[in-house]
Structures are given as C-alpha cells and as structure tokens.
Design a protein that fits this description.
This protein is α+β, with helices and mostly antiparallel strands. 32% of the residues lie in helices and 30% in strands. The protein has 2 domains: 4-213, Trna Endonuclease, Chain: A, domain 1 (3-Layer(aba) Sandwich); 217-357, Alpha-Beta Complex (Aspartate Aminotransferase, domain 1), CATH 3.90.1150. The strands form 4 sheets. Strands 3, 4, 5, 6, 8, 10 and 11 form a 7-stranded mixed β-sheet that branches. Residues 198-202 and 207-212 have low confidence and may be disordered.
Length: 361
C-alpha cells in the first residue's frame, strides 16, 4: 500500500524503495527494533541480540519477553521472506522452550552487559516492564514461546505455512516492512500480515477461519487440556473438576476462554482456573474478609504468595495462596496449585466447601 504526502497541489505519492536498494542490512532492521520494539506492534522487553544457542551454533536475531511472560523469537530478513525462515524460527522456539529462569536471567545479564554486576536485578527489570504497561499480575516466564518473522515481502509458501501453524495453535506473527524514500529520509511502514485476516494466500492453501484463530471457542476442552496444560497439570485439572462437579451446584466447566476455565454460580464466576503447563491458578470470588491468606496457608500447608517478592522467589514457591480485596463487598482468593499438592486432603476439601459458602450471593 502506497504512502501519499498531501501538499498544496494535492496528494503526491512517496517513492517506494527496497532495503537492498538503500543498501540497508538486516543489522539495520535489528537496530530499529532494538531502539523501539513498538515497531512490531506490541510492547516487548528485548533481552538478546544474535543469541547463540549452545551446542547448535545457531543465532536468534532478537530474543524478547512479552507482558504475558512468553519468550518471543524474532527473525529478520532484509529481502523476500522464503521457506527456510519459518523452519529456523520453529527450531529456535523449540530450543528456547527448554530454558528456565536462570537461563533467561543469564541471557539478559549478558545482553545488558551486566556480567559480574551484583546490582543487576532481572526480576525487578521484568516487573518494571510489566508495571509500565499496567500489568498488575506478574506472570510466570517462558510457559509459552512465540515467533515473529519480519521481512520485506511474504512469499506465498511462507504465508501458507504461517497460517497453518496459527491454526494449530502456534503463536506466530508475520510482518512485512515496506520502505519509502522522501528526499534524504527513509520511511518504513511495518504491516502485520498474519494474524490479521487476509486473502492473499487463498490460492496457496486453506484460508484462515474463525475456527483456526480461536480454537478455544470451537473445542475449548481440547484447547485447555491439550494445548495449555502439560500432562501433569492436565491430570490435576481433571481430578479437580471431578471434585467440584460432584460436590457443588455450579455451571461449568465453561471452556470458551483463551486463558482460563470458569465455574459459575448464578450470573457470576465463583471460580476461574488459569491453565498453565506448570501450575493451575484457582481464583475464587468470596465475601470480603471471609479469609486471610496466612490462615489458608497454615490450613493447607502451603506458602503465602507475596506480590512484592521477586520473580525468582515467586517461581521457586511451592503451592501458594494470596488473598486480595476486590471492593468493599468482595475479596479474591488465588491458590496456585503445583504438582506436589494433595487435592484429596481433608483440609482442601473443607476449604472448597467454605469458599463455596462464602460466595457473595
């Protein structure tokens, strides 16, 4: 799509050019994105450039974190985007999926040139990033991996593959960068080609449908149990659902949300369960002052979850609880269940009964 400059004589088309024609390199694209990641259409915390994957001798162009704690692999191409790019990015995502908190911390320390600096605090850096974009609930890191591919022109084959990957719940974004020259100035216009609904690849493969974009709407149960949960958290969820469904009069589970499953009482959610590969987060709606976090922690033999703690401390917690005030009438109770938690304990079953009774009807 062209860019037009409005002058006193009417619209004048700005001359389109190419990165190669302007003798710009992939490194220039990297520089621009590093300077302002908003060029990619979202807030990102860059933690690596030309990231070397140990034992592979491959390098990721840019590695970042998004506000949901996902790792974001960014691959850049100055010329046309061709087939090998998507395979590269998938390989990189598979490598990064194995990284733990310490790996991400070491990578960030290296990128920010803070090796040996005792004042460097990766936890605080990520928390400040989240707070700056008004994210109240600091997420776990690297539960999921995303891919962003940036280049000058999307080839049909890549577009078709990217759409197929998205339909199968791989979070991939493809961005075309159009380049223009206005006198001495270079103008760029990044355009998100995927996941926006486009028709350019109809002849190459099946078009993207609403079912592919939102699988949690068409088969939410499979989405949560197969795509968001691991085998361990899936087993925990199934057992928990059996307990809730057999003991309480609830409308649920409702599977049709992307990040959580809901159990309703009347017109309100009594319990929502955030599904993750390492934890299940149970959030109950209860009357104000019905519970205190320290009492629940002692009762269930779990830790207290403190928002003020660093990310590494939070990630290191076993199962934990947090109570917060929502308004003058209601509180929220969040219990983060990990693998070691005993769902069949008498105290937990009694807590569920108390939480159900404390629902503000």
């Amino acid at each position: 799509m062209s860019i037009w400059k409005i002058t006193s004589k009417g619209p004048v088309k700005v001359a389109e050019t190419k990165l190669r024609q302007e003798k710009l390199r992939e490194e220039d694209l990297e520089d621009w994105i590093i300077s302002d990641p908003d060029l990619l259409g979202e807030p990102l915390l860059i933690i690596g450039r030309q990231v070397l994957i140990p034992d592979i001798r491959d390098k990721i162009d840019i590695l970042a974190l998004d506000p949901q704690g996902n790792s974001v692999i960014i691959e850049l191409k100055r010329g046309k985007l061709r087939d090998p790019v998507d395979m590269q990015a998938l390989r990189y995502a598979s490598y990064i999926s194995k990284w733990g908190f310490n790996d991400l911390e070491d990578q960030a320390r290296n990128y920010f040139n803070k090796m040996g600096d005792p004042e460097f605090n990766f936890n605080e850096m990520f928390e400040v990033f989240c707070e700056n974009i008004e994210i109240d609930k600091i997420p776990d890191l690297n539960n999921e991996q995303r891919i962003i591919i940036v280049g000058a022109e999307v080839k049909d084959k890549l577009g078709s593959v990217a759409l197929w990957l998205q339909q199968h719940s791989i979070d991939i974004k493809v961005i075309e960068v159009e380049v223009y020259r206005e006198g001495e100035d270079i103008l760029i216009q990044p355009q998100i080609i995927i996941p926006l609904p486009v028709r350019g690849f109809e002849k190459t493969g099946h078009t993207l449908t609403s079912e592919g974009v939102h699988p949690w709407l068409t088969d939410g149960k499979s989405w949560h149990l197969e795509k968001r949960c691991s085998a361990k958290t899936r087993d925990i969820f199934i057992k928990l659902d059996e307990i809730i469904s057999s003991k309480f009069e609830v409308d649920g589970p409702r599977w049709n949300q992307k990040f959580y499953v809901a159990y309703r009482v009347g017109n309100y959610n009594w319990l929502i369960i955030d599904t993750h590969s390492t934890t299940l987060i149970l959030s109950f709606l209860v009357r104000a002052a019905a519970f205190r976090s320290e009492d629940i922690a002692q009762r269930l033999g779990i830790a207290e979850y403190d928002k003020a703690e660093s990310i590494s401390q939070k990630l290191g917690l076993p199962s934990s609880v947090q109570v917060w005030n929502r308004n003058q009438n209601t509180d929220g109770v969040a219990i983060r269940l990990k693998e070691e938690f005993d769902l069949s304990s008498v105290e937990f079953l009694k807590f569920l009964e108390d939480a159900y009774k404390a629902f503000p009807k």
